[in-house]
Amino acid sequence: MDDQLDELQARKVPEGWLGAKSSSEAILLVKEKGPPEYIDLDHDLGGEDTVLIFLKWLRKNHFNDIPRGCRVHSKNIIGADAIRHFMHDWKREIEFRQENFDSF
Fold it and tell me: Domain boundaries in the chain?
């Protein structure tokens, strides 16, 4: 099975993907299976839980393992923008570190 992760509430998990209904479930999946190569994200996971909790954990614990692909399917426009900005900033930080610290 591909090492992929899908954050979802009421969606059917596509074949070949792993699904998590909360940030804590997503964290457990990564601890068991390793960081995801592709992610398909919903911002609102129920109550106060959002996918940003998971993404911040993933970045802290697997900084150089940024997913190769990220799709956002959130109906929360502000939340979807927050996910996109988070992923963009993470990617830019990796590129900055590579450009500026690889020579050491």
Answer: 4-101
How are strands ordered across the β-sheet holding 4-7?
A: 18-20, 4-7, 38-41, 69-72
**Are 16 and 27 within 8 A, CB to CB?**
no
Residue 74 pLDDT > 50, yes or no?
yes
Output b/e per residue, 56-66; b: 16+ Cβ within 10 A.
Answer: ebbbeeeeeeb
pLDDT, tens only, 9-53: 456 888 888 999 999 999 999 999 999 999 999 999 999 999 999
Instruction: Give Cα 37 to chain centroid, integer Å.
Output: 9
CATH class held by domain 4-101: alpha beta
Whole-model pTM? Answer: 0.84
